[in-house]
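Quick one: structure tokens for this chain, please?
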Amino acid sequence: MTDLPTPPPTTTEVPQDASAIPDDPGAPPVLPGAYLLELIPMPVTDIDRAKRFYAEQCGFHVDVDVAPADGVRIVQLTPPGSFCSISLLQGMPQVEMEPGSLRGLHLVVKDIEAARQELVGRGVEVSEVEDLGGVFYAWFADPDGNTWALQHMPWRK
């Protein structure tokens, strides 16, 4: 994989007071008893390289890029149409993992061939589509070796 040019940094203003944060009408409500999975830490060696891969090659939206304290950096990216994001983290020992150790995160798609071709067109190495008993998969990895699956279930609307 070739090195991509460094994109301009994304900056996110962190309000001093929670009342300054605007409401997000698109966010699902957090109802009593709910456990919303919305963020998955992604173990990487180089946050900037991973940010470029996920944003430029995979088309993920960069939601947040902050350094809220010395030695701490948080980059949050969301796949198109997803309610769950990934976070690239530095300086947070509570979530440290071996880079490249995350396996098989699934991105559910409507048209696996089109999704695969889009990623290939952006320079991502994606396996051929496999039919595993009526559920279709294509696999790829980030620069650190964390693996992803495009998954298509034809019966899903």
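The first strand starts at residue 39 and ends at 41.
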